[in-house]
Amino acid sequence: MTATATLDEPVVNASPGAALDPAWQERARSLIGDLFSRSAAIYWTDLLLSSAAAWALTAIYFIAPAWSALQIFAFLGASVLFFRVGTFIHEIVHMPGGQMTGFKRAWNVLLGIPLLMPWVLYRNHIEHHNHLQFGTPADGEYLPLGSSPQTETLKYVGQAPLLPLFMIVRFGVLGPLSWLHSGMREWVLTRVSAAVSNPFYAKRFPKRDERHLLIVEALCFAYLATIAVLIWQGSISIAQFFMGYALLAFTLALNWVRNLAAHRYVNGGQRMTMAEQVAESINITGQTWLTVFMFPVGLRFHALHHMFPALPYHHLGEAHRRLMAGLPPDALYRGCNRDSYFTAVRELWQSARQTPRGESAMRAWSPGNGRS
């Protein structure tokens, strides 16, 4: 059986509660054991070329005639490329502390500070891989949208245009004020210092990284203050400010809606086994232009990533091909595959539509439900 043939096989339904057979799990590791090393050359080349193209298209977007085909193309191209560069934050948080330090700093300079998303705010992502927290209210990257009414999905999507505003307030107002008041600082470190999609997430920022956070906060504040001064002086017009806001909002929205196809989101808040974590995750296997744009830097192999978080993005495609060719037909991993983004989102939407309001799993996430 060839790898190409297995990619077209029908989906095997994998539901929570399925057992992760140690035999095939070990078999999976043996198939990809040589793929865990990172290529610094690939990372640097991708980062520098993608960010250079993104900023060049941004310049075109600002100087092109309003609503011209060139401006629209530059807007879309810059957003997609910024999204691509932005997803390296996911790679960075999975790197050991002393590995590729220069790359991490370069990423902050090229994207993290200008787009108000320094990578240290994504430290909490590691918790998302802890099977004791994954899929529970303690998971900052999980909402039970598939086991809650459709209105919850609509509310989630509706937040996308406001994401840049949240970040401007976080770094331009809340951060600086918290430097002056210890009580407010504790609130900021607990409630608005993690990159999450779960609005009820509340866990204090790690003390060991507070100095790092303070440095990037200061840089982001200085960046915002510079923009404010340039607007006051007339060097940047209000129209240009909102053009920048629109570009950032669309870029962040790409990742926000991409998240809808990362998991099935049907857990009701209970702890999940490692097998259930994998079964809850999704691989998008279709090779289309939309897949390339919506799932850059290996994001489409999300179930594979949850099985082996240390795999670098440039080896995920090869690892998936090997697993599909070498694992037995009943392997749980095969049930994680969906042929497109729309297939995964349609499954989520249908699951939400079948959930009565009185049985919404979102109640386990909301304040006042008795959880600590």
Quick tags:
mainly alpha, globular, two-stranded parallel ribbon, 16 helices, 372 residues, disordered N terminus
Description:
- This protein has 372 residues and is mainly alpha-helical.
- It has one domain (1-356).
- Helices cover 53% and strands 1% of the residues.
- The chain contains 16 helices and two strands.
- The protein has helices at residues 3-7, 22-32, 40-63, 69-86, 88-93, 101-112, 150-158, 163-178, 182-191, 210-233, 238-258, 274-279, 289-294, 302-307, 316-326, 341-353; strands at 283-284, 337-338.
- A two-stranded parallel ribbon has the order 1-2.
- α3 packs parallel to α6.
- The longest helix has 24 residues, at 40-63.
- The chain is globular.
- The model is unreliable at 1-19 (pLDDT under 50).
Low-confidence stretches: 1-19
Structural class category: mainly alpha
Helix content: 40-55%
Query: How many structural domains can be distinguished in the coordinates?
Result: 1
Query: Whole-number average pLDDT?
Result: 92
The coarse silhouette is globular
The topology string of helices and strands comes to HHHHHHHHHHHHEHHHEH
Number of helices: 16
Number of strand elements:
2
Strand order of the largest sheet: 1-2
Q: What Rg, in angstroms, do the CA atoms define?
A: 21 Å
**Cα-to-Cα separation, first versus last residue:** 50 Å
Outline the biggest β-sheet: 2 strands, parallel
Oligomer, anyone?
single chain
Strand content: under 5%
